[in-house]
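User: Could you check the structure of this?
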Amino acid sequence: MTVYEEIKQGLQDIIAPELRSIQTEIKRLDDKMDSGFARLDEKIDTGLARLDGKIDSGFARLDEKIDTGLARLDGKIDSGFARLDGKIDSVHNELGFVRNELLSKIENLDDKLEIAMQIRERLASVEAKMGALVH
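Assistant: Sure, the predicted structure tokens are below.
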């Protein structure tokens, strides 16, 4: 064997096992990184699923609160309109009463005016008869 071949063989005997050891270590680290990334992906997926659940739950509670608030508001509006309708009906009834009272007073005035006109006519007739008797 030549010196070159002996050096080559010596280097291969020394370096080759180290290279295989390094390759094995690189493979082990690569597998470990893949395993770590898989666990990290799983944790991220789990965390996102929990976050989605919390967001959905939050929106559901928010929807429920909005629906409850709107229902209360509808009730208040309906109650307010009912009170307003009652007040309008009361005013309408009172106006009807005032109208009837006013018509009654107008009829009473008409009657009194008719009586006053009849008295005036009679008075004029009496004055004319008196004036004829005095002359």
